[in-house]
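task queued by scheduler; priority normal; single chain, no ligands, no partner chains; default sampling; output format set to structure tokens
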Amino acid sequence: MTIHNSSLPPLLSDDVESLAVAGSVLLPGTAGYDEERTVFNLNHELAPALIVVAENAADVQAAVAFAAARGRPVLVKTTGHQMVDPARDAVVIATHRLNDVIIDVERRTARVGAGALWSEVIAAAAKDGLAPLNGSNPTVGVSGYTLGGGLSPTLGRSHGYAADHVRSLDVVTADGRLRHVDAGSEPELFWALRGGKGNFGVVTALEFSVFPVSRIYGGGLYFPGERMADVLRAWTAWLPDIPETMISSFAALRLPPLPELPEPLRGIFSVTLRFAYNGTAADGERMIAPLRAIAPTIMDTVRDMPYTEVASIHDEPTEPLPYYERGIMLREFPESAQDKLIQLVGPESDTTMWIAELRALGGAWDREPAVPNAVATRGLPYSLLGVEVGPRPEQARLRKSIAALLDGMAPWQGDRRLVNNLAPEEAGDAAAVYGPERYARLAAVKKSYDPTNMFRINHNVAPAV
């Protein structure tokens, strides 16, 4: 296999003989390379100079030292839900074998390897009646999600961002050192890692709080798309009175007629209200009764469920597919913004967008944790995300479709963005994403721990000058 458009010469077998690891060392063209470079989003392709499939933290240290000695960037990959670049010159460190999950029931913590998926953590914690601040998709990796803040649609509104509850991290920095980082040991690095994404090193393990939740009342109410205005207005009027234990989102769906989708939703335009309530089913049912009464539903999946089934609330794809997504935060959502959203993705719109989702935030998401971190989006009440699905040759159309939504909602856009919802072309926008003061602090930490910007194939924070 030939790698093109590279500014550095390809690595040869002789170059990597000194790289002694317990895991695998894969050059282009060798067995296993193509399998390990695959990512969840089929519209992204990795073609690195070298892949190291780590078995332990020592393997990560060796890979980082190897890259540093040769002036090559390092990219970390678990599942590849969010990629920004093919990484042609890079050393990719694949972490999926680092997937140990240890639950400490007495301390209510989980110690998780960097390659663990949320499905693995949920299953392990549930054995002891505990639950993490997981994301909506069970196939997403814990570490990337958490380092980007982690907006849990099940428990986040009452507990805050996943990053708020990280107790400690093991991280290999650009100098090859394995550091155990917490609030007492290296406070600035601890602050930056929790919200600064993968800019400061390779996390090999993290410890975070889990919560005594074994069941949840959740699911979705699906309505005909022509009732979008009624549903959206009723939902926004309902939101101010709900407790922090209730989380809800709105989505406009234009799903294709695929057999793996629920039959009532195939090939039609529908709108849905999603819920996750950490309380009794009776209270949850009473709370959402006014919304159930808006109109006859196409499908109603809201029910009491064990926490192990919370992925069914959003029912997101768990197999790789080609897609494009991008999001912004809204500082407000008045009636004029509601009208605009209806115009952009409602029944009279010609959009092809699969999903336009608006998540209502507030509650603990607005509060600084006891140990502050770099999460930038506190105080912004809504997250708006557009998702289009289609192959790489259709990228221009997919981007135009999402841009029409987000540009249309720009009058109500907040001044910061959620890192986990950024698109590849926004990789150079980190200063705008974090805001000037927070970015300056991140850049100072970057200068201390990664002065050559080894970890740059991301939504990059550059070292301070």
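post-processing summary
- The chain has three domains: 13-94, 101-212+428-449, 215-423.
- The chain has 13 helices and 17 strands.
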